[in-house]
Each structure stands twice: as C-alpha cells, then as structure tokens.
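#random but structural
TW: two for the price of one
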Amino acid sequence: MLVDTSVCVDFFNGIATREVQALDRLIGTGEILIGDLILAEILKGFARDADYRRARAVLMELPYSDLGGGEVAIAAAGHYRSLRAKGVTVRKSVDMIIGTFCLLGGHVLLHSDRDFDVMEKHLGMRVLRESRTDQAQSVASTVPRS
C-alpha cells in the first residue's frame, strides 16, 4: 500500500485522522510503501533540522520505490487527458504520477487528498477506506498480498 504525502504530513503534525491512524497501525508491518516523489514532498516541508532528521529516519525504514519513469509518465498523461475530457482536472502532476503508479502496479493508496477521489471514481484506482464507526479495526486484511 502506497502512502501519500497528505497522510504523512498529518502524521508528522500530530493530526489524528482516520488515515493517520491507519498509517500508525501499519508502520513496521512491511505493508506501507513510500515513493521518491512523496519522500521529497514530505521532507522539504520541515523547517527545523532536528525534525527533518527524525522524519527522514522514520521514512527511510519504510519499503521504497521510484514512482516515475517513461511508462508511468506516458500513462499519467493519458489519464490526465481522459479525466480532462470528462471535465475533471487534477490539480497536481505529481498526484497524477502517484495515482498512475498505483493503477499500473495494482497498489492501494492511503491518502487524504481530493485529487485522488476523482482517480478512484473515474479510473478505478483502489484506495483504503477506513470505517468511521470502527477506527480500531485492523486494515491489514484489506491490503492485497504480492
């Protein structure tokens, strides 16, 4: 399961969302994947060196993958054009790359960013949905095994 910047920012800022609670439960299980673009987005936001170093240490313990490349870039452009033809615009190219990486690789995305909602609706991207009534429920069973 790929974790998006939106969830990690809330995690490091101590904001208790359903997505952060899911991330907190899944860290250390080997089921969370971090990508290069996500890593850069998260780490660039730390003003204090100590916070940067602490976050970097935590993030570098997660399984890692490069998200881009020619195949992903071309597919992301196609996805963007397909959405635009439906009257939907994704605000950030990085989000198109992240979403396309998930679509091509069959990854579930853990996020709290509305741009991914349209990719789920129109492109079939899989996302983790936490139950509002049972936040303590383990989500590990919903993560497909490779």
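TW: number two ↓
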Amino acid sequence: MFGIFDIYLMEAVVNGVLLGGLFALLALGLNLVFGVIDVVWICYAELIMLGMYGMYFLYTGYDVPFLLAALISIGGVAVLGVVLHLAVIQPLLGTPPINQLLATGGVLFFLQSAATVMFGIDFRNLGIRLPVLEVSDMFISYARLLAFGAALAGMVASTCFSRAATPARRSVRSRRTGRSCR
C-alpha cells in the first residue's frame, strides 16, 4: 500500500515541477516586460493566445508544416506586439503607470472578446501526440519536459543577456529619466 502511494506521490511531484516550468516560462516573459523595459503591460497572455490560435489555424486549417506555422505565429505575435507598443504604450510612456494599465486593460478586454466572438469557447488542440516517458512506474509528459527545458534555457539566456546589457540599460534609463541608475 505505501509503495504504491510513494510512486504516485513522486509522479505528482515530478509533474508538478515540470508544470511549474511552463508557468516559469510565462513568468519570464512578464518579468521581461515589467522589470526590464519598465512598461505596465497586462495583455501579455492575450498575445500568446493569438499566437496559439494562429498556430492552430495554420497547422490544422491550412496544412502548414508545424515548425513553419510556429515561426509564422511567433513572427505575427512579435509584429502585433510592436504595433500595440507603438499605438498604445509609446504615447503613454511619460504619463503615470496607471494610464498604461488602463490602456492595456482595454486591449486585454478587446482581444478576449474578439477571440470569443471569432473562435468560440470550444477547446482546440493541434492533435499532436507526444510520447510519455515511463520511469520506474512513473509517467512523465514530454510536453512538460520540453516546456521545462525551454523555461530553463530562457532563464539562462535572459540572465546572461541582462548581465551583459546592464551598463547599456543604465545608460538608456538615465537618458530617459534624466537621472542615473545604480
């Protein structure tokens, strides 16, 4: 009885840690937006949603190969992010952060409502079945392993980049705010 409980507990812990990697990947993006570029941007998840819908429709509806659909979706979300930054955030950079919060909140509600009207509320997936790794009677999802690996690689890359870019970032912030940052 206790041997079976132990393996289920261990499987839940491993899968929980791997799922935490997915959340860490999303938090990494939020950290870059809030902490590094100093912008209050709360419609981040909605841009990810649009990228996911783009990927879904390119792959399932237009039979675009998986990796090409992913690259197109990432590029589309990047372009949309730049357009939203130029149209919504840049005019508000000199104002109090509450203005950025309200503006991106409006974009958030608009994108959520538009997606609900255009795509409905039905669950969709790409239909890709990744294998499941079996280790000592534990089943571990390859999708979670990939997400955990991407989160780990993203964190290492952003840490290395931020350490290398810190002097340049201080210079940019001091010119923008008129004071030096330590």
